[in-house]
Fold:
Amino acid sequence: MPSWFRNGLALTAALALATVITLAGSTSGQAAEEPKHVLMLHSFGPRFKPWTDHARVIRSQIRRNMQGAVDFHDHSLLEARYVDAELEEPCVDYLSALYASKLPDLIITVGAPAASFVQRHRPRLFPGVPLLLTAASQRRVEMESLTANDAVVGVRNDHRAALENILRVLPGTKTIQIVSGVSPVETWLRNELQRDFVPLAERIEIKWHNDLSFEQLLNDAAHLPPHNAIYWLLLIVDAAGITHEESSALDRLAAVANAPIFTHNDAFFGEAIVGGPMQSVEGLPD
Structure:
């Protein structure tokens, strides 16, 4: 199967389906009633937005379109929440041992940490098994490490455009408060965006809140002066080391914030979020 790369996630489900169909044809010697085994490797856990939404859509598309049974095996890289490379080795050993007697038919990674993990350990982690990397930033995928059995559908979020949209909607905005945490992926993203946001420095003040616990963030958000806006980037692990699943943190923030909240992904969209340019998860094609 050739390597693919696409901007955005609009083709994720279609590519996942094509990958499954391809591997199904390559294993025609197996009994027809035997299910296809798909290993889904999550970056942080099964309940972290927006990745949980991407995984749900991919699974739904595969089950809807795949002929025959599909058996999903879900594993999470809990170590992706922390800065400790030594935690990876036990996970590699565990996955290698777990599938020593029977390899999965397809591996799907969800999020950049899972994609990077598999690419780093590809020689030991099922080198001949088809691999689909999804919901990972284009900047994080090692293109030179892709094999003939790998497929990539990457993400390209234009966060600078999202901030410029805030200024169009609220031209009086003087400060944008950016919500972000301290996990490795959040730290990497913050460093990247600080460079991307340099052209905006003459127009607005950008404040990062990665050094605050969530409770401190809530207190600050409740007492913001006029002409402020909040940009929900990511909050996986706050400065106090607390992890935040699903939309519980965003819901609490929306309940107390005295400034409008914007974001970049419709997985977070709801009554608390002002509309604007967002990546659509539910808009993936059937």
